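Predict the 3D structure for this chain.
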Amino acid sequence: MKSFVSRLLEDLEAARSHDPAARGSVENFFAYSGLHAIWIHRLTHWMWQRPQLRFPARLLSQFARFATGIEIHPGATVGRRFFIDHGMGVVIGETAEIGDDVMIYHGVTLGGRSLARIKRHPTIGDRVTIGAGAKVLGPVIIGPDSAIGANAVVVKDAPPDSIITGIPATWRHRDSSRERKPLVDPAEYIDPAMYI
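Done. Predicted structure below.
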């Protein structure tokens, strides 16, 4: 039970750190469809790993899709502190693997390019941000600390610390001399009274 509660609290904290509109844990718990989709996915993924529960896992994942507008296949592997902002139209395929501290926006697809029963969806490294409408297709690997621009179509691997943009997407290294700030500086956006 403690593990479930600690994971839930981690997710709520991830929402606050990624979204300046996040007002507090109670509101986020009830109003953030991205969190709801992730929580249901964690349950369906646990079920998916037990062959006798795969059919109910698929049914529950389809309910989550109906309720949230976010489709995460129960077979997908999702890391800790994953955050989906806005969420509507997100599709994450069966063999996708998502690292820790990843953030994606609405309209993102982590899809396949093959009908074969192989690893056919992307692997997303830790601390990657994927912009609205981006499509990451096939068994590509996106290195940690990268950012994928809005509406990019990614069909090739990218190394760590990449900025990935365009159709088809190309990558360039981040400017390492740039200051690394928190995604959202709580001092700039959050009124401490909202947590009372």
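DSSP finds five helices and 15 strands in the chain.
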